[in-house]
Amino acid sequence: MDLLKTVADYMAEALRNLGVTHSFGIIGKSICPIVLKMVDYGIEFIPGRHESSSGFEASGYALKTGNLGVAFGTSGPGGTNLLTAAAHAKANNLPVLFITGHQSIQELGIPQCQDSSSYLADLADMFRPATLFSKLIERGDHFSTIFNHAISIALSGKRGPVHLCIPFDVQTEPLKECRIVIPERETLVSYANFDRIVDAINHSSRPLIIAGKGVNRSGAHTELVQLAETFNIPVVTTPGGKGAIAWDHPLYHGPIGVGGCRHGDDLLNRSDLFIVLGSRLSDMTICNLKAENHPETLIQFDVDPTFVGKILTSQTIAVGGDLRDNLSLYLQNVDTAAIKKRDPETAVHYAEELPDLPNLSLASVMSTMSDLIPYNNTIFVDDGSHGFNAVKWYNVKKPGSFVFDAYFACMGNAIGMAIGAKAASPEETIFCITGDGCFMMLGTEINTAVCKNIPVIFIVVNNMQLDMALKGMEKTTGRIDGTLFEVPMDAVKFAESLGAAGYKCETKEQFATAISEAVALNRVAVIELLTDRDEVPPTAHRTLNLD
Q1: Is this structure's pTM higher than 0.70?
Q2: How far is it, in rounded angstroms, from Cα 324 to Cα 414?
Q3: 429 to each of 60, 380, 524, how far by Cα in Å?
């Protein structure tokens, strides 16, 4: 007599059929049945050092593949440690399935270690605001309906994380049948405002394209360039949209907002039409836009309508659905003969003068880094002053190769994301630019990369302080409480203790040598940059008055 498949069997088989090749997490009793079944079905298990990092790894995997990422944790604290990564995935529209364990339903109400029930840490409730869907599966015969719903939400529409909390006895429950529906990608477009949009562009005298994170997430890089060239409109990028277009394209006028350039922000303040592609227009993007300079008209493409038309006072034309699908359709239907002729300024030298410092300048390192690395790369950039220095100074040659989250802005996210991306795309050279503050939070995850031979190159900017917080507090309050590391870290010794190669750099020449050696080495490497502590980061626009 054939044994019936269990819920864990059906889930593992479904994930394999979805094309999932890796899962990320930390194993424990409450999640053991599902994790082991995933291994049995050929899904490689990458054991992390902290659940947050495992969640970020699943996000990096999802970003690089465009497919579902999978992260898991045990009940109780294993699940709560995943919450930060879930919120980060939601902010970045990344389809990640977060799976947490739970005590057996039959034992509900009995005090147990690492309780995930409503008696202590109700994970299904906790994940609800941090995901697009969160549900406790209380019975095996409910599994297929809930699982199908969850993956459909994760992989369609605006895309994003979902969470399933599955009790131990439900994971091992045998089922006579279980129908899993694999969702297919749909083309999601909004064509109703096509004529209004073309009309608005033709009536504008100073239009501006603001390329946001959505360009990178949807892979609309070719369509962005085609839009700009068809209508001859200048392009600027938000912090998260950095890399949407190559740095030397004639119509690119630089980054705006925090980490932006003066020229780009000047364009922002004298344009009468914004064409916003996949940006929420957060404070990190429009901090230098004066209220009296809001444009007359705003065309906003966004798969998520939450903030569309609600940030600026402009008359708004909204376009929902997938950005790449929309741009592709619109560009196919544009009558080029009816386009207004304009002659915008091109080949602008938007870069500003580098700082002159007695010690190593991070700005100078970032300005030359893209000349030192292979073209086929992706760089994941952590949050902090180092991140905004990269936004301002790094020259992106390969569109879509720069990944930075200035919105949820979780310190340490890039460390895990780079590992997950490298697992998904082993042929690429993957870099992570992080800071000493971020690295001291989640830097042990380099041991995960070492153990699984996932050769990411980590660049750790070490200025022995929480630089962005220090400079901001000093400017606004005159105080720097809690921002200095009295005993600074030695990133090279730390890296070597975890099995990685280490390089310490105090000059640009040492950095160039370290990059060359690390790329050739093809193993996990940590390059420590000892930068000038007095370098002013490009973050001073966004300040807080505590008077």
Answers
A1: yes
A2: 25
A3: 14, 11, 11
